[in-house]
Amino acid sequence: MDLDSLRFANFSDLDAAITDWEQMVTKLKTLQDDAKDDLKAKSDKANWAGENATVTRAFVDKTAGEFADAHTQAETITKILTDTRGELVGYRTELNDAIHRGVQKNLTVQETGEGSFTVTMNIHPDRAAKGTTLPEHTQQDVDRFRDEIQNILKKATESDTSAAKVLTLIVDQAKYGFSDASYSDRDSAAKAVAEAEKMAEILKKDPHDVTLTELNTLNTTLAAYKNDPLFAERFATQVKPKEVLEFYAGIADPYQGYGTDRARIEQAKRLQKNLGITLGTATLSDSDKMHAWEEKMVKLGPDRLGIDDANDPTGFGVMSNLMRFGDYDDQFLNDYGDKLIAYDKERNVKDMSPWINNWNQGDLNFYGKNDRGRDPMTGFMEALGHNPDASTQFFAQPDGAGATVDKESEVNDHLKYLTKDRIWLPDATFGGDSKVIAGHDSLGHALEAATTGYAYDADPMAGKDPMVPGSRDHRTAATAGVMEQVAFLYGSEDGPKMLHEQSQLADSLGKMGAAYIDDIDYGLSGIGDEAKDDGTFPAKYQGRANFGNAGAINFLSVLGQDETSHGVVTSAQHLYTLSALDAYPATSEANIGNAHDALTTGAEARGILDHSRVQQAETTYKDDAEQANKSLGRSGDWVKLGAGVVVGGGIAAIPLPGSTAAALVVAPMAADTVGDMVNTFIGHEVDKSIDGSEQDATEKSQMTSQKFYGAGVAQLGDAYTDYVEANPRMEKVGDDQDWAQDVKSSYLGTGSLQNDYRGRAPYKD
Question: Per-residue DSSP letters for 500-551?
């Protein structure tokens, strides 16, 4: 900044701009509140139909979000302008005070142009009036005065230029609309940018020359700023995509002579996560520089990096391990995935994997003993698992699909390739389980995100969006479109074989089935595909999944074959039925009818699941009654899942054994609040009727199945009894209408027979 520009600065225009921005913030806050509490609230409650259910609702949601971002951006700009104005006024005062002190020593400054100045005597002794005594000064005084002025101008210049830089970066974050980047002042925004530039310099170095101290500094800074949009974008765009990949490959390669250096290995592990999250945040920027960076990164995917580290990996081989962590831009992930799939398809040859082979020792993943990170498809699936919108888009139902997916031509090409055609191989580390295919587990994570709208390891009970009525069901017509395809594929004739060969997907398939248990029940209701029961099973979201009657039966029959998926879906079904009984107290004929249908349809679903489980146990352990007994005993333990269930906003969060956030099952409930029926299950002790399921090895498996079915009937009977006790008038109604027989027939008759004649047969080796 020039001397005179600061010395004689007039901030009236800046003051006026700040006033305008302050008024804008107030107005935008009002619009934000109106958009949220009026526009979006009415949209959420509206009974949209047709295109309005998807297009209009999505537009309203996006518009409401834009108002929030507009307010955030205006508030940030106001704070930065106000802070910068305060700093510049302060520096102007410092400058004038310094000039005044200089005059007292007969010194002054003069601007010489282009940001420079000179220190001179205020009055030369030769030109002083006769008798005038001039203040004396030394050369040291001159130097100090010069340095003080220079320091003030330097600080003012930094304040001015950094403000301009961060304001430009904030505006560039969103090419259309507004950025949600929020900063309290210029200093914090400027510091983020400065730190990004410093860390980028480390990435430009040869990774073998980077010290442990530098790695620690890099990790610590990335961890602190990984979610900061200005830091992330500035950091990424200061380093070329190829340099990022080469740096991580060099640091992570265990064969560089420090394979036993635990401190460096730990830093490399931290770098994978911190760098991955930071790059993900950077891709959310809409700036031209970031778009160019993303395009280059995608283009690098198939190419070898031309380095000595990690067996000279491809761009896919490195980037897929970084993107396991973080929230990445949806379009970037889809562009990246399209190119990866195309490349992979051309090389999908048995015993000739381009990724997992004896000569590829490029272990670039530090998380999971069964996943060395050599297969980039695994890392990419993990990325989709953390980015629900991108995953839903990647597996979107093709245009022109019918009301119900009933042929492979209606299945997304990516989904069909990854579930049916691709050759997946185990990639276990030394000491890992060579029978486990980590890629299948990650594929399950991606499909969970695509169908539920949640990151697969998200905790629905934590974060900024609490469990309040109507806020937590993330299903849409688009997620339902993916779910319909999944149900078709795994409910097909190949379904039992697919589930058996992809056993790592069982928990994910169970979670997906649980997330759509209301739509599955709706598919079971009615007569075939006619007379569906909208009264008992109303849509919880627009564009609900349509599995068709046969599709629902087939999918349930396959899920029932596996111990894990059987337990997850059975628990969700039981909770949903109980919540329906809570939602339909016997206060009207309509409610009584709905309660009856909820019980019988739930019993039918249970019958399909349990019959499938019994058939599979008998088939798998046909020569070992003891193992069949134990298998069914474990399946009976699903009731333990009731402990720890949390319900809110019409959603149940069911913790699986060994519960972590990733082990939560999110399932819909018929009622937004918890009633007495659900409370009887939550935290309930394990049903004693299950305890005897592990019988003597000499007892026939048929006896085991009898006891297993007996437990199922008993649980349904308990639900009916609890409903009658909660609604006294129901005892006579139930007797007159023979509800007990209806429920039992639905479970043992309809459910089992549906599975026998219309479901899928058990898998046979």
Answer: HHTGGGHHHHHHHHHHTHHHHHHHHSSBTTBS--TTTS--SSTT-----HHH
Enter the tokens of residue 526.
Answer: 């009615």
pLDDT one-digit tens code per residue, 536-560: 999 998 899 999 999 999 999 999 9
Predicted TM-score (pTM) of the model is 0.81
Dihedral sign from CA coordinates of 467, 469, 475, 476: negative
Burial class (CB in 10 A: 0-12, 13-18, 19+), 77: buried
Pick the closest to residue 77 from 163, 172, 192, 155 (CA basis).
Answer: 163
Which helix or strand (DSSP H or E) is residue 654 part of? Answer: strand 651-655
Which pLDDT band holds residue 275 (cuts at 50, 70, 90)?
very high
Are the C-beta atoms of residues 594 and 535 closer than 8 Å to each other? Answer: yes
Contacts of 98 (CB under 8 A, 6+ apart): 145, 148, 149, 152
Which two structure tokens, joined as six digits, stand for 422? 């691709």
- Full 3-state SS string of 284-347: CCCCHHHHHHHHHHHHHCCCECCCCHHHCCEHHHHHHHHCCCCCCCHHHHHHHHHHHHHHHHCC
What is the Rg, in whole angstroms, of the alpha carbon atoms belonging to the chain?
A: 33
Task: Give 371's DSSP letter.
Answer: B
In whole angstroms, what is the distance from residue 33 CA to residue 28 CA? Answer: 8
Beta strands in 243-283 (DSSP E): none
Mean pLDDT of the chain: 84
> What's the one-letter identity of residue 42?
K
| b (16+ CB within 10 A) / e for 257-285 | ebeeeeebbebbebbbbbbbbbbbbbbbb
CA dist 432 → 213, 220, 503, 561, 596 (Å):
32, 30, 17, 27, 50
Contact 716, 747 (CB under 8 A): yes
Buried b (16+ CB within 10 A) or exposed e, 396-421: bbeeebeebbbeeebbbebbbebbee
Q: What is the pLDDT of residues 237-246, one digit of tens each?
A: 999 999 999 9
In whole angstroms, what is the distance from residue 663 CA to residue 752 CA?
30
Distances (CA, A) of 744 to 2, 7, 291, 486, 600: 89, 91, 61, 30, 8
Residue (of 281, 259, 276, 274) closest to 320 by Cα position: 276
Cα 460 vs. chain centroid, distance in angstroms?
Answer: 11
Say which DSSP state 684 is in. P
